[in-house]
Design brief:
3 helices, mainly alpha, 0% strand
């Protein structure tokens, strides 16, 4: 099935981008998938297509969790940098 192969390809690209932590590619793939979903919903879906969509949906949960984790790490790094800058400024003022 053509649609099933296309969905599998998208899923594999999602997985590769997540492993590479390529957030821009993940966003582009997400946009591509979001554009395709309304077209898929226009016709009855074969069970294989439904299964592939369910697999992609499960992957989305993983992708979102990884994104949130990355966002938390970056937030902590920014806060640490701000703390370091404030400490350096205080040190320089009291020298």
């Amino acid at each position: 099935m053509k649609i099933e192969r296309q969905l599998e390809s998208i899923l594999q690209h999602f997985k590769q981008a997540l492993v590479a932590e390529d957030w821009d590619k993940l966003a582009a793939l997400d946009t591509k998938l979001q554009q395709a979903l309304p077209k898929l919903k226009q016709a009855p879906l074969a069970s294989e297509v439904k299964a592939k969509l369910a697999e992609i949906n499960q992957f989305y949960s993983l992708m979102i969790a990884r994104g949130e984790s990355e966002k938390s790490e970056i937030r902590a790094q920014i806060q640490q940098q701000q703390t370091n800058t404030e400490g350096m400024q205080a040190y320089l003022q009291n020298r």
